[in-house]
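**Reference record**
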Amino acid sequence: MTSSTDSAKQLRYLAGALKAPRILDVADRLADQARDQGWSFEDYLAAVLEREVAARNASGAEIRIRAAGFGTRKTLEDFDYDAQPAIRNQIAALTGGGFLTEARNIVLLGPPGTGKTHLAIGLGIQACRHGYRVLFATATDWVTRLSDAHRQGRLPAELAKLRRYGLIIIDEVGYLPFEQDAANLFFQLVSSRYEHASLILTSNLPFSGWGGVFGDQVVAAAMIDRIVHHADVLTLKGASYRLRNRGIDTLPSIRTTTGDNEN
């Protein structure tokens, strides 16, 4: 009994020193299983540590998800692929997170209400689960953030800070036009991440319409060149899911086409 009590005290001390309190519960529960099934010491230790690592990863992912600023949580598992069957395989290929290690971008184009934001958030949540820090905001919110940094004389520092995030999501590119200064700031954000870290962008406009958004065809062309050089471009089609069963088939928006997306 004394030996067992001493061991329990030692475990509590070691778990506290390692900042791994879950080990106490796991070690106790697995001990009986290890004895019954004749595990080796190595098997028992590996099982205990495996559960601690899994718990830490889950906890860390939740912290990263909350810090990303998604607003609403939308997962890839909840997406209605029956409405967008053409992209099912493309999304499946992206869920492993390989695009993040390669600093590749993802561009989601399509009419309003076809699920672009849902997919962007879903991929962002997957990135959090893979251990990447993520930030999500609309295009106008990103410009506001960069404008504030520029006005305070800390734009280079802000861009350097953002480069430390494995993924930045820019939602709703093209919903509102940018003034020249804002377009230049947006271009600097894209350029700072080129071949360094990933972007996900959503837009209701084909690339051919981005010149009007940024007020300068040259800036838009240079930006698109950097975005799509290493990118997967996914086109969503159809009517807005928000209008289903409401007797409205289309919205007055610019329709994306395959030809436009490939320019």
